[in-house]
Amino acid sequence: MSQMKTLALLATAAVLSGCLGATTIEVPGDFVPVERCEPYTIKAVSADGVVLAQRTEDNPKNGTLEFWAAAIGNQLFAREGYKLASNVEATSESGIPGRLMTYDALRSGASFKYLLAVFVKGGKVIVVEAGGRADSVNKLLPQIRTAMMTVK
Fold this sequence. Notes:
Blueprint: H1 3-20, E1 31-33, E2 42-46, E3 51-58, H2 65-80, E4 83-91, E5 97-107, E6 110-121, E7 124-133, H3 134-148
């Protein structure tokens, strides 16, 4: 392989590692990771436009899971107009306690669904989000929920 091709491959790997190198969820086969995803550690999209993303935030004051789930939920409700449809306790496959919330919204006559999983692990808050048109999200719901529970 030529030196230029090697350098191009290394440069591509470096760019992708910013979004794909620190993933903590397993992306379902129906989703394709996208290259630009800041502030997410991974962001993927389905053919129907459903987005699945994971990000990690600092938890400097060691806020509880209940605090972060309420704070994020309040932000969605207040700023985005989503209505809470469900809020249940969840535990990741690796044993991290969390909350799994589902929100619904109506935009220009179309129904949208937004799923949010929040986990607190030490000094970090791990947020996994998925959203899109309700009919598209509903088709992928089992894969989305499974991916959300793969947080490590």
